[in-house]
C-alpha cells in the first residue's frame, strides 16, 4: 500500500520535473547551454497563473496567459542573452544565466513581496479515491494526465510536422539544416517558446498543488532540472522524460527510507552521482 | 575602524577562496559548481576541533588535509565526466554536503555550530593572518601558473585530448588541481568559521558556490590578479550597496549578466584589451 502511494507521489513530482526539464533539454540540445534562468520562467508562470485566476476566475485563461507570458519571455532571453554569447566558452552563458535568474528572483520579490501569493479559491482540490484505496487530489491526477497528453502531442508534432522535423534537424546538425534552407533563428525561437511555455504551465500546476507562489519557488526545479537532463543523457527528449519520472520516484522512496541521513535534494543528487559513475554518458544517451 | 577590519578580513577570506577555485576552474578548466562544500568541510572540521579544545592554529593544516583528501575523492569520481556533466556532478557534491550536514545532530543539524572558541588573536592580528595567508596563496598560484604543472593545467583546459596524445598523464594533473584547490578552500573555511564564530549548513550551499564562481569569472578566469580583484570587489559589493537596500541582489544579478554579455573575459580581459589593442584579448 505504502509502496503504491510512494510511486504515485513520485510520479506527480516527476511530471512537474519533466515539464520543467523538457525546456532545458530543448535548449541544451540546440545551444549546449545550461539554462538556469529557465526556472525564472517557471516562477513567472506561477505568478501570472495566480494573478489571472484571482482576477478572472477562469483556470483555462490562467494557463493560457501563463504559457504565453513565459514563452515570450523565453524568446526574449534567447535574443538578448544567449544569442550574443554563442561564440563564447560555455561557462560564460552559464554565469550570465545564473545572474539573470538571481535578478528575476529579486524582481519577483520586490514586485509581489517575499511571502508569496495564493489562490483565493483554489480549484481541483477535492480528494478522489482510486482502486486499492489510493487517494489523490484532483489536481494531482490532472498534472499527470496533462503532462502525458502534452508530451504525446509534442512527440507527434516533432515527428509529423515540417516545423518539428526542422527542429530535429537543427539539433542534430545545425550547419546541414541551414544549408537546406532552415532558418536557425526561427527554429531557436520556436524551441525557446515551446520550452518556456511548458515551464510556465508547470509553474501554474505547482502553484495549484501548494496553493502558493513564492519568489524562490524556481530554485529547486532549476537544480533538479539540470540533474535530470544530465541523467537523461543531455538533449534526448525521451531520456529526459524517463529520468524525470525515475527521479521523482527515487526521491519519494528516499525521503521515507533515507530521510534520517539525507534531505530530499541530497537524495536526488546522490542518485545522480551514482548513476554518472556507472554510466558517465547518462541513463539514456542516444549514442 | 572595527568595521573596516572585519570587512577586510572577510574580503581576504573570499579572495583566498576564489583563488582556490581558480586553480581548478581557471587553470585546469574543470568547472565546479559545488566548491562551497570544501569551504564547509574546512569550516566544520576546524570549528568542531576548536570546540574539543584544540588550538585554532593546529586545526588549519588539518582542515586543509581533510578538504584536500575529500577533494581528491571527488576528483577521482569526476575523472569519468567532462564539461557540463562535471559542472552538474560537482553541483551534486555541494547539495550532498549540505544535505548530510543538515541531518547530523552532532554537527548541529539545521541550527549549525555556534560558540566556536576564540583563536586568541586580536581582530587586527586575525586580519593580518588572513591577509598574509591570502598573499601566500596568490604567490603560490602565480608560481604554479608559471611552473611545468601550470603549463600542463593550461593544456588540459585548452585541449585535453591533445595532452593525452602528447603522453601526459591527464588524470594525475586533474587530481593535483583538485587536491590543491580543495585544500586551499579548506583553509579558507577554517578562517571563515573563526571569523564569524558561527557556521550553519546554509553558509555552504549552491548560492555560495555560484558566488565564488562569479568572483572568478568577473575578475577574469585564470588570471591571478584578476581573480584577486574580482573577489575583493564582489565580496565588498553588498556592503557598499547597502544604500540601495532591497535592490542589492537585483543589481548583483544584473551586473553578473551584463558583465558576461559585454566582457566575457572579465575585468582582466578588459584591462589586457586596453593595453594591447589589436592583440588577442
Keywords:
heterodimer; A: 287 residues; mainly alpha; ABC transporter involved in vitamin B12 uptake, BtuC; two-stranded antiparallel ribbon; 2 strands; B: 281 residues; 74% helix; BCAA_transport_permease (chain A); ABC_transp_permease (chain A)
Beta strand count of chain A:
2
CATH architecture grouping of chain A: Orthogonal Bundle
Q: Percent of residues of chain A in helical segments? A: over 70%
Structural class of chain B: mainly alpha
Count of individual beta strands of chain B: 2
Structural class of chain A: mainly alpha
| CATH fold type of chain A | ABC transporter involved in vitamin B12 uptake, BtuC
End-to-end separation of chain A in angstroms reads 39 Å
How is the main sheet of chain A built?
A: 2 strands, antiparallel
Oligomeric state, counting identical vs distinct chains: heterodimer
Mean pLDDT of chain B: 90
Q: How many domains would you count in the coordinates of chain A?
A: 1
Low-confidence stretches of chain B: none
Fraction in helix of chain B = over 70%
- Roughly what fraction of the amino acids of chain A lie in strands? under 5%
Strand order of the largest sheet of chain A: 1-2
CATH class (first level) name of chain A: Mainly Alpha
Strand content of chain B: under 5%
Family (chain A): Belongs to the binding-protein-dependent transport system permease family. LivHM subfamily.
Pfam families (chain A): BPD_transp_2
Transmembrane segments (chain A): 6-26, 33-53, 59-80, 92-119, 139-157, 192-213, 225-249, 261-278
Subcellular location (chain A): Cell membrane
Question: Can you tell me about this structure?
Answer:
The complex is a heterodimer of chains A (287) and B (281). Chain A is built from 11 helices and 2 strands. Chain A has a two-stranded antiparallel sheet. Chain A is 74% helix and 2% strand. Chain A has helices at residues 2-31, 38-56, 59-82, 90-112, 138-160, 162-172, 174-179, 184-210, 219-231, 237-257, 264-278; strands spanning 127-129, 135-137. Chain A has 287 residues and is mainly alpha-helical. In chain A, strand 1 (127-129) and strand 2 form a beta hairpin. Chain A has one domain: ABC transporter involved in vitamin B12 uptake, BtuC. The relative contact order of chain A is 0.19. Chain A is globular, with a radius of gyration of 19 Å. With 281 residues, chain B is mainly α. In chain B, helix 2 crosses helix 8. The longest helix of chain B has 27 residues, at 170-196. The relative contact order of chain B is 0.19. Chains A and B meet through helix 4, helix 9 and helix 11 of A and helix 4, helix 9 and helix 11 of B. Chain A: GO terms for molecular function: transmembrane transporter activity. Chain A: It is found in: Cell membrane. Chain A: Belongs to the binding-protein-dependent transport system permease family. LivHM subfamily.
Amino acid at each position: 500500500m505504502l509502496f503504491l502511494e510512494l510511486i504515485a507521489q513520485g510520479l506527480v513530482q516527476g511530471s512537474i520535473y519533466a515539464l520543467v526539464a523538457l525546456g532545458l533539454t530543448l535548449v541544451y540540445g540546440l545551444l549546449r547551454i545550461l539554462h538556469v534562468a529557465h526556472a525564472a520562467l517557471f516562477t513567472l508562470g506561477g505568478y501570472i497563473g495566480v494573478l489571472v485566476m484571482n482576477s478572472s476566475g477562469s483556470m483555462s485563461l490562467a494557463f493560457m496567459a501563463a504559457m504565453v507570458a513565459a514563452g515570450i519571455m523565453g524568446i526574449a532571453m534567447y535574443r538578448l542573452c544567449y544569442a550574443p554569447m554563442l561564440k563564447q566558452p560555455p561557462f560564460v552563458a552559464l554565469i550570465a544565466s545564473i545572474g539573470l535568474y538571481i535578478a528575476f528572483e529579486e524582481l519577483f520579490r520586490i514586485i509581489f513581496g517575499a511571502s508569496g501569493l495564493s489562490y483565493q479559491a483554489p480549484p481541483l482540490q477535492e480528494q478522489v479515491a482510486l482502486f486499492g484505496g489510493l487517494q489523490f487530489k484532483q489536481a494531482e491526477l490532472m498534472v499527470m494526465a496533462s503532462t502525458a497528453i502534452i508530451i504525446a502531442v509534442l512527440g507527434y508534432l516533432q515527428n509529423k510536422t515540417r516545423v518539428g522535423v526542422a527542429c530535429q534537424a537543427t539539433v542534430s546538425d545545425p550547419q546541414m539544416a541551414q544549408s537546406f534552407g532552415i532558418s536557425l533563428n526561427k527554429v531557436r525561437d520556436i524551441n525557446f517558446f515551446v520550452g518556456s511555455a511548458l515551464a510556465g504551465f508547470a509553474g501554474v500546476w505547482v502553484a495549484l498543488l501548494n496553493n502558493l507562489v513564492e519568489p524562490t519557488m524556481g530554485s529547486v526545479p532549476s537544480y533538479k532540472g539540470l540533474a535530470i537532463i544530465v541523467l537523461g543523457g543531455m538533449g534526448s527528449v525521451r531520456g529526459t522524460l524517463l529520468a524525470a519520472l525515475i527521479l521523482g520516484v527515487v526521491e519519494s522512496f528516499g525521503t521515507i527510507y533515507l530521510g534520517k541521513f539525507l534531505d530530499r535534494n541530497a537524495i536526488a543528487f546522490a542518485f545522480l552521482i551514482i548513476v554518472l559513475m556507472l554510466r558517465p554518458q547518462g541513463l539514456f544517451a542516444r549514442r | 575602524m572595527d568595521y573596516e577590519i572585519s570587512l577586510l578580513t572577510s574580503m581576504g577570506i573570499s579572495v583566498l577562496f576564489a583563488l582556490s577555485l581558480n586553480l581548478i576552474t581557471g587553470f585546469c578548466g574543470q568547472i565546479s559548481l559545488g566548491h562551497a562544500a570544501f569551504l564547509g568541510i574546512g569550516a566544520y572540521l576546524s570549528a568542531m576541533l576548536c570546540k574539543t579544545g584544540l588550538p585554532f592554529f593546529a586545526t588549519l593544516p588539518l582542515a586543509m588535509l581533510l578538504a584536500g583528501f575529500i577533494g581528491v575523492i571527488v576528483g577521482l569520481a569526476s575523472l569519468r565526466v567532462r564539461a557540463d556533466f562535471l559542472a552538474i556532478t560537482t553541483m551534486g557534491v555541494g547539495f550532498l554536503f549540505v544535505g548530510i550536514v543538515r541531518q547530523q545532530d552532532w554537527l548541529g543539524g539545521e541550527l549549525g555550530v555556534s560558540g566556536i572558541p576564540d583563536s586568541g588573536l586580536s581582530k587586527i592580528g586575525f586580519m593580518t593572518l588572513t591577509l598574509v595567508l591570502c598573499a601566500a596563496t596568490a604567490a603560490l598560484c602565480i608560481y604554479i601558473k608559471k611552473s611545468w604543472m601550470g603549463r600542463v593545467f593550461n593544456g588540459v583546459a585548452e585541449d585535453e585530448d591533445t595532452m593525452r596524445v602528447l603522453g601526459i598523464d591527464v588524470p594525475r594533473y586533474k587530481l593535483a588541481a583538485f587536491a590543491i584547490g580543495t585544500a586551499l578552500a579548506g583553509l579558507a573555511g577554517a578562517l571563515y568559521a573563526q571569523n564569524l564564530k558561527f557556521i550553519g549548513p546554509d553558509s555552504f550551499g549552491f548560492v555560495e558556490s555560484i558566488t565564488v564562481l562569479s568572483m572568478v569569472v568577473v575578475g577574469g578566469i585564470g588570471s591571478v590578479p584578476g581573480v584577486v580583484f574580482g573577489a575583493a570587489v564582489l565580496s565588498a559589493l553588498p556592503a557598499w550597496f547597502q544604500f540601495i537596500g532591497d535592490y542589492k541582489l537585483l543589481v548583483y544579478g544584473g551586473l553578473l549578466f551584463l558583465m558576461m554579455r559585454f566582457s566575457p573575459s572579465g575585468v582582466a580581459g578588459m584591462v589586457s584589451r586596453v593595453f594591447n589593442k589589436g592583440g588577442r584579448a
